Amino acid sequence: MAKGQKKSTPKQKDDDWAGTIGSLRAKLSLTQERFAAKVGVTWSTVSRWENGRGRPSPLATLRLEEILSGEST
């Protein structure tokens, strides 16, 4: 690793999810509660994702990808 470079941390990856999920939810004009229902999780889970305190499970990731692909058509 070059001098001055930082290692990628899990927190940074969670922050990437936070931006993606927040942007998608805003684009769909959904509350956390309605977005959560669409994905199949609780609103508090969506809140954790958006605040970078967690990331989606593999199943939730698949559902998010389905939502994203449906929005691009």
List the helices and strands and how they pair.
Elements: H1 10-27, H2 32-39, H3 43-50, H4 58-71
Mean pLDDT: 84
Uncertain residue ranges:
6-12
Largest sheet: none
The total domain count is: 1
Structural class computed from helices and strand pairing: mainly alpha
Question: Could you name the CATH homologous superfamily?
Answer: lambda repressor-like DNA-binding domains
Rounded to the nearest angstrom, the distance between the terminal CA atoms is 41 Å
CATH T-level topology? 434 Repressor (Amino-terminal Domain)
Detailed description of the structure:
With 73 residues, the chain is mainly α. It has a single domain (10-71), classed as Orthogonal Bundle (434 Repressor (Amino-terminal Domain)). Helix content is 66%, strand content 0%. The protein has helices spanning 10-27, 32-39, 43-50, 58-71. 11% of the residues are buried. Residues 6-12 have low confidence and may be disordered.
